[in-house]
Amino acid sequence: MTPAPLPLLELRATQMAEPVAAEFRRPLDALQARFGASLAAVLLYGSCRRQQDVTDGVVDLYVIVDEYSGAYPGRWLRWLNEALPPNVFYLEAPAENTPFRVKYAVVSRADFERGNRTAFHSYFWARFCQPVTLLLVRDGQTSHWLAGVLAQAVLRFLRETVPMMGAEPFTADVLWIRGFQLTYAAELRPEGSGRPQLLVQQDAAYYRQAMTAAATVLVGMKTAQGDSYRVEDSAGAISACRRAWRWRRWLGSVLSLMRLAKATFTFSGGVDYAAWKVERHTGVHIDVTPQLRRFPLLFGWRVVWQLLRRGALR
């Protein structure tokens, strides 16, 4: 594993310490009460973080715990988290005017590090190469560890994207957009085709800085001219990367369906949330019947198949 260069570590540490609206911290008391001494850190990511608006849908949090044995009193949730991290839960935090809805994912330190450093599938490193905000952390040592893991997520994302860039010179923006296109295609997601470009535009300065900081240790790429880069990988390395992405697309479909099924056991109101998210991003309305709400595993597959046929899930 190539060590992350110091400028990239500093960028991740600085970025995750940027201030956010105080409203985002409302769920922290509830999370501390639930996970107690096992709670190591809470990260904010997703569209609400980017928009700095707690009313923009559902706030996405990642809860990092030391071990699952200390996070859950029972074996069932512990087993689900170990089998296919993360476990996803829902809560509503107190608010004066509008409901404060939170979706939080729980993952152990070991699984978080493995997912961002060495995991074959892009589920973790595609998310955590992006800007995140540290809402709560146990101590400085944990914060330093987080910066290192987040830096490795950037390196992993770029290593897996560079060989897919073709023969022509490319800018940092173009590379990041291409990488997000690849990672979105490796999951069943309702977002439209323009989502990768929007992600990069909203945090363009961060992505360019991350590219500059990482470029010194990226094998198979060189600076072409000015702020552009060129692929230097061998034909064999490029072919291997293409095969890996084909496998990720197949594996990602399976994992997405498995995570969707698992969420029916942990996510209260998950069917309504999924329907809302699909309609928000695609305009496709899902009729959530009492039957579907009560037995999502039994009747949800027909809905998923219809969405796939209509192109609402990619």
Biggest sheet descriptor: 5 strands, mixed
Helix and strand element order: HHEHEHHEEHHEHEHHHEEHHHH
Shape: globular
CATH level 1 class label: Alpha Beta
The CATH homologous superfamily is termed Beta Polymerase, domain 2
Number of folding domains?
1
Low-pLDDT segments, ≥5 res: 297-301
Q: What's the overall average pLDDT, rounded?
A: 86
- CATH names the topology as Beta Polymerase, domain 2
User: What is the β-strand count?
Assistant: 8
The helix content is 40-55%
CATH architecture: 2-Layer Sandwich
Number of helices: 15
Q: For the terminal residues, how far apart are their CA atoms?
A: 32 Å
Tell me the fraction of residues in β-strands, as a range.
5-15%
What does the model show?
This protein is of the alpha+beta class. Helix content is 55%, strand content 15%. Strands 3-4-2-1-5 form a 5-stranded mixed beta sheet, with helices on both faces. Strands 6-8-7 form a 3-stranded antiparallel beta sheet. The relative contact order is 0.12.
In short:
It contains 15 helices and 8 strands. It is an alpha+beta fold and 314 residues long.
Q: What's the structural blueprint in terms of helices and strands?
A:
Layout: H1 6-16, H2 28-35, E1 39-45, H3 47-51, E2 59-65, H4 68-71, H5 75-83, E3 87-93, E4 100-108, H6 109-117, H7 123-128, E5 133-137, H8 140-161, E6 170-171, H9 172-185, H10 195-202, H11 204-214, E7 221-225, E8 228-231, H12 235-266, H13 270-282, H14 290-294, H15 296-310
Parallel strand pairs: 2-4
Antiparallel strand pairs: 1-2, 1-5, 3-4, 6-8, 7-8
Helix pairs in contact: 1-8, 1-11, 6-8, 8-9, 9-10
